[in-house]
Amino acid sequence: MLARRSLARLASQPSPLGAAPKSARNMATLREIELRLKSVRNIEKITKSMKMIASTKLAKAQRAMQSGKEYGLANSEIFQHAPSETPAKHKLFIVVSSDKGLCGGIHSSVSKATRRAIADTEKPVDSDSPIMVIGDKSKMQLSRVLSKNLAMSFNQIGRDIPTFADAAGVADLVVKSDVKYDSIAIVYNKFISAVSYEPAIVEVVNENSLKESAGFRAYEMEDDVTKDLAEFSLANAIYAALVEAHACEQSARRNAMDNASKNAKDMIDRLTMQYNRGRQAAITNELVDIITGASAL
């Protein structure tokens, strides 16, 4: 009986370390919410600024895309008169991407399209078909799955609006490389509207296919003419793909930053409501303590 009374008396005594009062815990929680509110507001400012910048760049990119499409139309007219008699199986895939992120799934779309094209059974291609990537983002994605197929990569291209000089430099390196291929397939993002895009593949005929086509065999021409035409057509196709992919990237970045700004605003509203409720609860507890103390007197 004496032991039980001693244990009960010890349990009723306060801890020597002392427990934190409720008001102190509420103040700590309110301080954490206040700091989080401050950080989310800063993030909202950044995303709104990036959205404005992307909107400005999108207008310039769309103008460049309209002029760059003329190069693609010129290529299509040439390839209509030089159809390939035998389907090419050993293709060179040129994936058009960029080095920058924060633009949604713009890079993963072309990476997935490339993987689907290589694994396609209706239009089969060799599993070891070489891949060249423009941009570090898609390079990192494809290196996880198709690392053996990667033959060359390019970066620092299209940081601003792409130019024909950028496309010509890429085409020159492709032609001078030791990579063997029957035809070239350029994988890029096709601009549909300011809020949507889709991956597309455009075929580019190489020098040997131009020589063997019926439309070119009807004329006598020097070898250099066909070689220069094939390289110029490749540069045209790459330039048209670069400017269209750049417009898609700016559009996707603007939409991504718009969604991020909306999410930040929703989070600010929730945190503000939580902060106000916690602050009101702390004030109520303090008033209850004051009234209880006054009534005890």
Describe the structure.
The chain has 297 residues and is an alpha/beta fold. The protein is 64% helix and 12% strand. It has eight helices and five strands. Strands 3-2-1-4-5 form a five-stranded mixed sheet, with helices on both faces. Helix 2 (22-80) packs antiparallel against helix 8 (223-296), helix 3 packs parallel to helix 4 and helix 5 (164-176) crosses helix 8 (223-296).
List descriptors.
297 residues, alpha/beta, five-stranded mixed beta sheet, 8 helices, 5 strands
From the spread of the alpha carbons, the general shape counts as elongated
Cross-sheet strand order for the largest sheet: 3-2-1-4-5
Give the distance, in angstroms, between the N- and C-terminal Cα atoms. 37 Å
What is the β-strand count? 5
Largest sheet, if any? 5 strands, mixed
The proportion of residues forming helix, as a percent range, comes to 55-70%
- Tell me the strand percentage band: 5-15%
